[in-house]
Sequence to fold (277 residues):
Amino acid sequence: MTRKLFALAATAVLLAACSGKEAGSTSASSAASTTSAVAGSLQERIEQHGTISVGTEGTYAPFTYHDESGKLTGYDVEVTRAVAQKLGIKVKFEETQWDAMLAGLKGGRFDVVANQVALTTPERQATFDKSSDYSYSGPMALTRVGDNRVKTVADIKGLKAAQTLSSNYGEMATKAGATVVPVDGMAQAITLVQQKRADVTLNDSLAFLDYLKKNPNSGLQVAWRSGADEKLGSGFIVNKGNEAALKKISQAVDELRADGTLKKLGEQFFGEDVSVK
Fold:
């Protein structure tokens, strides 16, 4: 995902962050020297089973949020904790606003970011690296239970699709030949389908799975979902220059996928395994 507007549910994306005060304590005269300092400290802390700082929002359910007791939790948060346990390290979460998160990582405030971000732009790819993916998302269509007209995206041609006009899903519906019923966001789109004022709505799969998990009696069903080639993956984000540390993090993610931990967490937060395409 590319942090698609999860509220409109266009996507979301990534980054488990590992604390930045140690990484940013050395005043660097350039971005390169800052990255070098972070790289060395991160690898050293992992090898010595120390503490890393992880940047995350804490307000972005179901990925990173506070539960009713006030505990920080969410899919990305729990994956981070599982990785830390695998590596034998401790995690200090640093909550921050999304708009400041990548800048904070680049500046050395965090070691890592975990917040559903995919490195899809050349600018981000030039500055950051990503671990093995721990979740995948792509387009999905919801219809009312029992309405089986939609089996492929082409089947929405001629149907009423409730979509935000400015989103990539609105564009997808228009391109497929649907009659777009304009809405302000995903919640309104879902309501229109439930009320039979629209036939279908398209959005990000993780957004829809989260909704269906929380609303099992919604009267809606997954009618279609994209293939593996259309899905984007989210992983832990670090500054360039952390190759050795990132390799260890990726190995831990792969082990958690193999031993079923990621599947279990996906089922807990989304009702299904979201760690595989």
